[in-house]
Amino acid sequence: MKRLIPVILSLLLISWSLTLLPASAAEEWIPISTPQDLADIGKNLSGNYYLTQNIDLTGFEWDSIGTDPFKGVLDGNGYIIMNLSCESYMNRVGGLFMQNEGTIKNLCLYNFSITAKDVQYDNVDAICGVNYGIIE
């Protein structure tokens, strides 16, 4: 019986640690922990990403992610992206992402400033300028 208790505790610890990972362990998930990591999502718009901590964009010159739609998953894990400041000009849409066709979830936003200058369309928002995906 004394040997069984450590085995059970080990199994519980392993199963608990696996719940901290994003939903599908079969897919590759990319951790996001810095402003540059966040901006680099634009290099792979169909990837699966998750935040590992709050991200402060103070002083970071932000350009909305992607010229093509984001088609991946961004799981904020309840963390905060704060102090984003960006400008949208002419027929460019603005926000954290330009366009979303994927899933953005469990994400908190704080202290965003988006300035629209000479915008021909009304496509400016904190999360994305145009959304055809899921935001939850």
Protein architecture, described:
The chain is of the alpha/beta class and 136 residues long. It has one domain (24-135). It is built from two helices and twelve strands; from the N terminus they run αβαβββββββββββ. The protein has helices at residues 4-18, 35-39, and strands at 29-32, 48-51, 55-56, 73-75, 80-82, 85-89, 97-100, 103-105, 108-110, 113-117, 128-131, 134-135. The termini are far apart. 21% of the residues are buried.
Query: What is the structural class?
Result: alpha/beta
Poorly predicted runs are none
Question: How much helical structure, as a percent, in the residues?
Answer: 10-25%
Strand content: 25-35%
Strand order of the largest sheet: 1-2-4-8-12
Following the backbone from N to C, one meets helices and strands in this order, namely: HEHEEEEEEEEEEE
N-to-C span = 46 Å
Based on DSSP secondary structure assignment, what is the total number of beta strands?
Answer: 12
- Average pLDDT for all residues: 81
Task: Give a quick set of tags describing it.
five-stranded parallel β-sheet, 12 strands, globular
Topology:
Layout: H1 4-18, E1 29-32, H2 35-39, E2 48-51, E3 55-56, E4 73-75, E5 80-82, E6 85-89, E7 97-100, E8 103-105, E9 108-110, E10 113-117, E11 128-131, E12 134-135
Parallel strand pairs: 1-2, 2-4, 3-5, 4-8, 5-9, 6-10, 7-11, 8-12
